[in-house]
Amino acid sequence: MAAELVRLKVDVIIGRVWQQPRLAKDATTTIPIVTVASDPVGAGLVASLARPGGNITGVDLSGKI
pTM for the whole thing? Predict the structure, then answer.
């Protein structure tokens, strides 16, 4: 499904759990991905909370910030 969204050239991809944004991250580096994750760093979605890098943004629910 993530590859299909990339092919359709959507403006943004929204994923609710870490698996969805992970698949989207693997499919694109240019389309913004918005997620709500319990631990985006631990899930490998972002490099760090201070400097996430890449095209993923969202809300961290881990309580680490």
Answer: 0.82
